Amino acid sequence: MPTLPPPTSCEELLAQMVSFETVNPDFGGPAGGESALAAHLETLAHHWGLQTRRLPVGDRGFNLLITAETAPDAEWLLFESHLDTVSLDGMTVPPLKLTADGDRLHGRGTCDTKGSGAAMLWALQAYAHSTQRVRNAGVVFVVDEEAQMRGAKAFAGELAHISRLRGIVVGEPTGLRPVVAHNGALRWRTITRGVAAHSADPSKGRSAIHAMLHVVAALEARFLPLACRGFPLTGRAAASINLIRGGSAVNIIPDYCEIYCDRRLVPGETAAQILAERDAALAGQTVEHDSLYLAPPLPPQNSAALHAWAAPALRACGLDATAIGAPYATDASHYAAAGAQVIVLGPGDLAQAHTKDEWLDRRELERAIAVYGALLRLPAGSA
Question: Residues 34-68, buried b or exposed e (16+ Cβ, 10 A)?
Answer without folding.
Answer: bbbbbbbbbebbeebebebeebebeebbbbbbbbb
